[in-house]
Automatic annotation (TrEMBL):
Source organism (scientific name): Dicentrarchus labrax (European seabass)
Signal sequence interval, chain numbering: 1-21
Keywords: Disulfide bond, Glycoprotein, Immunoglobulin domain, Signal
Protein name per Swiss-Prot or TrEMBL: Ig-like domain-containing protein
CDD domains in the record: Ig
Keyword DNA damage: no
C-alpha cells in the first residue's frame, strides 16, 4: 500500500527525534510468558501521535483519528486507540526483544519482553557413582529436552551447591564437577532447571564415597595408668570407614584371634601387661590405620606392721621403729595421731622411709604411730603402734594452804610429772606420816605448825625428787560490835563510836553505807582504827555504819549501826494562797526540817489557832485578812523557829458573755461583750476552746472586753468564752453559742433530665442555709409544690419544660432560684427474651430481645454480670447481632440466668430473668447392682445416666427384641431363666440421644460363661436405634 506524506513525516520524526520532557513507563500484562500466549502492552497515558516499535522497527503508526499497522504484524496485533494499548497474539520466541512506545515530542518508553519455551524432561547422569575419597573426580551432567533461557541450580539433599575450591560448574551451569571427592560429598544430587515461566527438578543421583579408615581411637574402660590384679579391662577401638574396616588385635607384636571392635580382659594378672594395638583395613580404599595403648598390671600390698628395736622409750634417749611390708612397695609414709610426720632435728628416716628413729625422745613424741605403704594400685596403713615416753619424777608440786585455823582440817596434795606415776611419801619433822599423794591433817592445834615434806619416786627410771611447805595454825576472830561512847549525836557536837572484838585480830576497817570509810576533816580513827570520832558530827553523817575485824584466814562484820544526827528546827516553809474569796476555806501548810520531827503551832493576830502543821480556816470573811504565823519547836535541841504569810480576803468574781438583741446575719456587723463582776487584770477570748486572735475582720476593744466581727461570716459560728485573769486566779465564762444566719445559697436540684410518658419524675431541691430554707416549686409560672421534694403526676409529652425550685430564708429575707429541664420521651413498654428452638448441647441456639417501644441500644447480662463477647472463655462461643444473642454452639457452660437490657435517655429497662438450662446427654450410663446372687433371692438393678432432662429407661435381656421392663429399676428373682446379659437403654426425650450399658448376671451355682461386668456398649442414636431394638 502507499503511505501518505504525513506518514513519512511522522516516521522520520519518531525515528530520529527523542524527547525527555516527561518520564513514563509502559507495562506488559505478563512478562516473561510462554510461547503461543497473548500479551497486552500499555501505558497509563493515552498517545494520540506517535508509534509502537519492536527492536526499532515500527509496528503501529499513531496519529489523530487513525493508525497504520505494519503488514508483517497486521494479523497478530490489535491496537486500542482509546487506551493506546497494543495486544500481540500467538507469541513466539522470536518475539522476544525491545518494545518502544514513542509519543511525539512528549515521551519515549521501553520494555524488554521475554517469550520462553516451557522446560520439560530434565535428566541427570554421572560419569561414576562409586568413588574413592581423595582419588576420584565426580562429573554430573544435567540435560533438558525442551526449554529456553535456562538457569541451573544444583542441590545436595535440600542444600544449594555453590562453587568453591573443589566444586566447579561448566556448560553454563549444566555440568557439576567435584575434584578429589571427600566423604562429605556423599549423598543425593539433583539439578533444578528454571526460566521465567517454569521449572523442573531432576530425579536424584546418589554418590557413594568410600573412605578411611581414619580418625582411629582406642578407648580403655576404666582408664588408669596401672591396673590392679583381678581387674576387668575393656579395650574399644573405632575408626571412620566406608565400607566398614576389618579389625585385628595385637599384644606385644603378636596377633590375637579376635576380630571384634572390643577386647575384654577379665581377672587380669601381671602377665597381662603389655602393648595392645588394634589394626584397621579398608578393602575398598586399600588403606591401613592403627591405635595402641600400654597396659600395666600390678598386685596390691598384702600387709603392713610397725615394730620397734631395743627397750622402752625413755626421755632424752634414742628410740627406733621399723615398717614391715608384705608386697611391692613404691613409697612409705609415717603418721602420728593422724598427722603426716616430716623429718627434723630429732626425727630421722632411713633410705626408703623403712625405719623411723626418735633421737632423743621427747615428751611430744607420745602418741599413736602408723606407717602407710604405697604402690600404683594400692596403699595400706598399719594398725596404730602406741609410743609412751617414760620420764620423771619432776620437782613435786604441793597444793594446800600455808595457814589454817585451829580446830579445822587441812588437806595437802602432792603431785609430780612422771610416767609411770611416781610413788609419794609425806614427812613431818623428818618423820614419815603418809604414803599417799593426799595428806589430811586435823583437827589442828597451834603446835601442829611446821614443815611438811613430799618425796616422789619412779621405779622405772629409778629417780626421786622432794618438795616441802610451811603450815601456820591461827586462832579465829569470834566477835565484832559497835557501841556509842559519850553523849547523843547532836549536830555540831563531838560524837564517838568504838569497835569491840574478840579473837586474833590483825586489822579493822569501818564501812559507811556499805563502802569503806576513810578519815577526813571531821572523821578520824584512833587505837588502830578501833575508835571512830566525829568532830563535829553533821547531818550529812547520817547513814549505816559497820566495822570489819579480820586476820589472814577469817573476818567478821558487826551488825549495822544507824546514825541519825539530832538537829533543828530550821526556818519553816509555808504553803498556801495569798488571796481568797469570802466564803472559801483556805488550807495553810507549815514544814521545818528537824530531827526529831518538830511540834507546830499557828497564830493569827497573836492568838493561837492550831497545834498541827496544817491549818484549815473557817469560811472566810473580809475581817479574816491579815498575818498568819507558824512556829516549829524541837524538844531535844530545845530550839524553835517561826515564819508568817499574809492572806487577803475579797468578794467573789462573776464572768459571762453578752450579745446584742439583733440576730447574727452573714455580711452584717456583730459584737460580743465580756461582763466581769470583781477585780480583773486581763481578759482573753476563746472560740471552740482555742484562743481567739484578731484579724482584718475580728477586732478587740475596751481592753479586750468587746470583740467585734465586721462583717460576720459563716466561719464565725462556734462556742465563744471570755477568761478573766488576775494574780490569784483565772475564771472562764460559760460557752456562748454564736450561730451565724446565712443563705440560701444557689439550690442544687437532683432529678432526671429525661423521663418516660406514663411514669412519674421525682426532683429533690437543697440549698445551704441557716435557718433551713423554705422551698417552692414552679412549672409554667404555676406553683406545683411547697416542699423540697416534688414528684410529678403521670407524665405526658406536654409536661416537658423547665421546673423551677425557689429557696427562701425568713431571717436573712433572701431567696435563691435554680432551674431543671425535663424532657418527656416515649416509654419502653416492655422488654422480653424469646427463643424459637430448644437449647441442645453442641447445637446453635439463639435468644431474641423483644422491645416494645423506642430504644437507643441493647446489651445482655448473664448472672447479673455484663456479657462481653470479646472476653468469652475458651469453652463458650457466642456473638451479639442487633437484638439477638447467638450461641455457636450452645454448651452446658452457657447455663445461667440471662437478661437483655434496653436503654433510652431515661435509663435502662431490664427484661425478666430467663433461665437457660441446656439439654444434653446422656453422657454416660451406669448399672448398679450385683453380678451374681443365690438361687431364689431377689435382685435389683438400677440404671442411671448423666443427662438433662432425665432419660427414659428400657431393660432388655440377652437378645430379646422387646423391652422386659421400663423405668430406671428392674427387680427379678435369681433363677436360671433370669441369667444373662441385662441391657439398659437410656434415651433423652429432647436430644434423642440413646446410650446402652450391659451388665452380666449369673446365679451362684450356675457354671456358665458370661461377659465381664465392666463391659459397656455405647451407641449414639439420633433418629433410630439398632435393628435389635426396633
Amino acid at each position: 500500500m502507499e503511505c501518505p506524506v504525513l506518514f513519512y513525516f511522522l516516521l522520520a520524526t519518531i525515528s530520529f527525534e527523542t524527547t525527555t520532557a516527561i518520564s513514563q513507563n509502559i507495562y506488559a500484562s505478563e512478562n516473561p510468558l510462554p510461547v503461543g500466549s497473548n500479551v497486552t502492552l500499555f501505558s497509563r497515558i493515552n498517545v494520540t501521535t506517535g508509534a509502537w516499535m519492536f527492536n526499532s522497527n515500527i509496528i503501529v503508526m499513531i496519529f489523530p483519528g487513525d493508525r497504520i499497522i505494519d503488514d508483517t504484524w497486521r494479523e497478530r496485533v490489535i491496537f486500542n486507540s482509546t487506551t493506546s494499548s497494543l495486544t500481540i497474539r500467538s507469541l513466539q520466541v522470536e518475539d522476544s526483544g525491545l518494545y518502544t512506545l514513542q509519543a511525539l515530542n512528549f515521551f519515549r518508553s521501553e520494555l524488554t519482553l521475554s517469550v520462553q519455551v516451557p522446560i520439560s524432561n530434565v535428566t541427570l547422569r554421572a560419569n561414576a557413582t562409586n568413588l574413592v575419597e581423595f582419588n576420584d573426580t565426580a562429573v554430573l551432567m544435567c540435560t533438558v529436552a525442551n526449554g529456553s533461557s535456562l538457569s541451573y541450580v544444583w542441590l545436595k539433599g535440600n542444600t544449594v551447591v555453590t562453587a568453591s575450591g573443589g566444586v566447579q560448574f561448566s556448560d553454563g551451569g549444566a555440568t557439576l564437577i567435584i575434584v578429589r571427592v571427600t566423604r562429605y560429598d556423599e549423598g543425593p544430587f539433583r539439578c533444578n532447571v528454571s526460566n521465567g515461566i517454569s521449572q523442573e527438578i531432576s530425579l536424584p543421583v546418589h554418590l557413594n564415597i568410600s573412605y578411611g579408615p581414619s580418625n582411629t581411637t582406642m578407648m580403655i574402660m576404666p582408664m588408669k595408668y596401672i591396673y590392679k590384679t583381678g581387674s576387668n579391662i575393656l579395650l574399644s577401638c573405632s575408626a571412620e570407614s566406608s565400607p566398614a574396616a576389618i579389625i585385628r588385635w595385637m599384644v606385644n607384636g603378636v596377633y590375637l584371634n579376635d576380630f571384634s571392635p572390643q577386647l575384654q580382659l577379665e581377672m587380669v594378672t601381671e602377665s597381662h601387661s603389655g602393648n595392645y594395638q588394634c589394626l584397621f583395613y579398608n578393602t575398598a580404599t586399600s588403606r591401613f590405620t592403627s591405635a595402641s595403648a600400654m597396659i600395666r598390671i600390678l598386685a596390691p600390698i598384702a600387709a603392713v606392721v610397725v615394730n620397734h628395736t631395743g627397750g622402752r622409750a625413755l626421755l632424752n634417749e634414742p628410740f627406733t621403729m621399723y615398717c614391715e611390708v608384705n608386697g611391692s612397695v613404691d613409697n612409705i609414709q609415717w603418721w602420728k595421731n593422724g598427722q603426716l610426720i616430716s623429718a627434723d632435728n630429732t626425727t630421722v628416716f632411713d633410705t626408703g622411709n623403712t625405719t623411723l628413729t626418735l633421737n632423743p625422745v621427747q615428751h611430744s613424741d607420745n602418741g599413736n604411730y602408723q606407717c602407710q605403704a604405697f604402690n600404683y594400685v594400692s596403699n595400706m596403713t598399719s594398725s596404730p603402734y602406741t609410743v609412751k615416753v617414760n620420764y620423771g619424777p619432776m620437782k613435786p608440786v604441793i597444793i594446800g594452804p600455808s595457814m589454817a585455823l585451829a580446830g579445822t582440817w587441812v588437806i595437802l596434795n602432792c603431785s609430780s610429772a612422771s610416767y609411770p606415776p611416781s610413788l609419794i611419801s609425806w614427812y613431818f619433822n623428818n618423820s614419815l606420816v603418809a604414803t599417799t599423794s593426799k595428806l589430811e591433817i586435823g583437827p589442828l592445834t597451834l603446835n601442829m605448825s611446821g614443815k611438811y615434806a613430799c618425796m616422789a619416786f619412779n621405779k622405772i627410771t629409778g629417780k626421786n625428787s622432794t618438795a616441802s611447805v610451811m603450815l601456820t595454825v591461827l586462832a579465829p576472830v569470834t566477835m565484832v560490835s559497835i557501841k556509842m561512847i559519850g553523849p547523843l549525836p547532836i549536830q555540831n557536837h563531838t560524837f564517838t563510836l568504838i569497835c569491840e572484838t574478840a579473837g586474833s585480830v590483825e586489822s579493822i576497817i569501818w564501812m559507811y553505807n556499805w563502802s569503806q570509810l576513810y578519815p577526813d576533816n571531821t572523821r578520824n580513827f584512833t587505837m588502830n582504827n578501833t575508835i571512830l570520832t566525829f568532830d563535829p558530827v553533821m547531818a550529812s553523817d547520817n547513814g549505816n555504819y559497820q566495822c570489819v575485824a579480820s586476820n589472814p584466814l577469817n573476818s567478821s562484820t558487826s551488825e549495822i549501826f544507824t546514825l541519825e544526827v539530832i538537829y533543828g528546827p530550821e526556818k519553816p516553809t509555808i504553803m498556801g494562797p495569798n488571796m481568797a474569796m469570802t466564803g472559801d476555806n483556805v488550807t495553810l501548810s507549815c514544814y521545818a526540817s528537824s530531827n526529831p520531827v518538830s511540834i507546830y503551832k499557828w497564830f493569827f493576830n497573836d492568838s493561837i489557832v492550831a497545834n498541827t502543821s496544817e491549818y484549815v480556816t473557817l469560811p472566810l470573811t473580809r475581817d479574816l485578812s491579815g498575818m498568819y504565823t507558824c512556829m516549829a519547836y524541837n524538844n531535844i535541841t530545845g530550839k524553835n523557829s517561826t515564819a508568817y504569810t499574809m492572806l487577803t480576803v475579797i468578794d467573789p468574781i462573776m464572768v459571762h458573755v453578752e450579745a446584742p438583741m439583733n440576730p447574727p446575719i452573714e455580711g452584717h456587723f456583730y459584737n460580743l461583750t465580756c461582763n466581769v463582776t470583781g477585780p480583773t487584770e486581763h481578759i482573753y477570748w476563746l472560740k471552740n476552746y482555742e484562743p481567739l486572735h484578731e484579724n482584718d475582720r475580728t477586732v478587740f476593744y475596751m481592753n479586750n472586753k468587746t470583740v467585734t466581727f465586721n462583717p460576720l461570716e459563716q466561719t464565725d459560728t462556734g462556742n465563744y468564752q471570755c477568761m478573766s485573769i488576775n494574780t490569784v486566779w483565772s475564771i472562764t465564762s460559760p460557752p456562748f453559742k454564736l450561730l451565724v444566719n446565712f443563705g440560701p445559697e444557689t439550690p442544687i436540684i437532683d432529678g432526671p433530665a429525661f423521663a418516660e410518658t406514663g411514669h412519674t419524675a421525682k426532683f429533690s431541691c437543697s440549698a445551704k442555709s441557716v435557718p433551713p430554707s423554705q422551698y417552692h416549686w414552679f412549672f409554667n409560672d404555676s406553683t406545683v409544690a411547697n416542699t423540697s421534694v416534688f414528684t410529678t403526676g403521670l407524665l405526658s409529652f406536654n409536661m416537658s419544660g423547665e421546673y423551677t425550685c425557689m429557696a427562701s430564708n425568713y431571717v436573712t429575707e433572701n431567696v435563691s432560684i435554680s432551674v431543671k429541664m425535663l424532657t418527656v420521651i416515649e416509654a419502653i413498654e416492655s422488654v422480653m427474651i424469646r427463643n424459637n428452638t430448644v437449647p441442645i448441647n453442641s447445637e446453635n441456639f439463639t435468644l431474641t430481645c423483644e422491645v416494645n417501644g423506642p430504644y437507643d441500644k441493647i446489651y445482655w447480662m448473664k448472672d447479673n454480670m455484663y456479657l462481653n463477647t470479646s472476653t468469652a472463655k475458651a469453652n463458650m462461643s457466642y456473638e451479639i447481632e442487633n437484638n439477638t444473642l447467638h450461641f455457636t454452639p450452645v454448651t452446658m457452660y452457657n447455663d445461667g440466668i440471662y437478661q437483655c437490657v434496653a436503654t433510652n435517655q431515661a435509663g435502662p429497662h431490664a427484661s425478666p430473668q430467663y433461665v437457660l438450662l441446656v439439654n444434653y446427654g446422656p453422657l454416660s450410663v451406669h448399672i448398679l447392682g450385683p453380678d451374681s446372687a443365690k438361687v431364689g433371692s431377689s435382685v435389683s438393678l438400677t440404671c442411671s445416666a448423666a443427662s438433662q432432662p432425665d432419660c427414659d429407661f428400657d431393660w432388655f435381656l440377652n437378645s430379646q427384641p422387646s423391652a422386659i421392663k421400663t423405668g430406671s429399676v428392674i427387680t427379678f428373682p435369681a433363677t436360671k431363666e433370669n441369667e444373662g446379659n441385662y441391657t439398659c437403654k437410656a434415651k433423652n426425650p429432647v436430644t434423642n440421644i440413646t446410650m446402652y450399658e450391659i451388665k452380666a448376671f449369673t446365679v451362684d451355682h450356675a457354671s456358665t460363661f458370661h461377659i465381664p461386668s465392666n463391659m459397656m456398649l455405647m451407641v449414639l442414636v439420633a433418629l433410630s436405634v439398632t435393628a435389635l431394638f426396633n
